[in-house]
Amino acid sequence: MSGYIKEKVRGWLALPELEGVNDLDDPNTSELHSRIIQNKPFLKKIYLENYQEVVRFHDSDPDAVIVELGSGGGFIKQVIPEAITSDVLVLSSVDVCFSGEHIPFKNDSVGIFFMIDVFHHIKTPRSVLTEMERCLKPGGKIIMIEPANTWWGRFIFQNFHHEPFNPAAGWSIEGEGPMSDANGAQPWIVFKRDQEQFLKEYPKLRINRFRCHTPIRYLISGGVSMRQLAPTFMYPVIRGLEMLISPLNPLLGMFCTIELEKSPRS
Q1: Would you identify the CATH topology of the domain 3-13+23-262?
Q2: Which pTM does this prediction carry?
Q3: Mean pLDDT of 130-153
């Protein structure tokens, strides 16, 4: 697809609130994204559904420590007030600021690490996985929602999204920007393409789920950078359509839910 067409589409769909906002690594941009999520009903409903992953775990283990990594513009505390929010950026909305390479929790103390669109920004995934494995209690889980390397997801992310999406890359991301540098294919690379290598390096972690989903709704929502493309009352209709075509999610899903579990015998 030509660069001219891509730029025209992006310009047409761009949110007016983001005009002149160029620094994705500025904490003010994350604060702006938070307001956008709250004010876009389609997008907020998607976040609420994603948070249900944590709610289900919390219901089964009410005393578990829940840590969200890369909380950014999210609002998990509205759903689970006791969740500990964190980010590498200093934000007024998060509880703790730290890098995933140095997680400030004791060994075997965390019940769940949760992330939405974070893992594909991690520069050194081996270091962060090692830290999460250390902090997780036996039976604890890592749950992440990430871009999917399906036929449809790859087409959209490579042609209409600002972040790189390179399925041929290795386990690292160049650059210093916590938000501006990324590889949307990194979760697929680590947990699907190189699954045998991952399991060899992290024998205490098993992959419980790698499920592709959401082929339409996020695109319709416009994410945090583009306009919502359908009226909000259409949300249940589009969600129903996604359910009808769910057998095609391995080809069409734009996102995937990845669940890792630490061995109960560790």
Answers
A1: Rossmann fold (3.40.50)
A2: 0.94
A3: 98
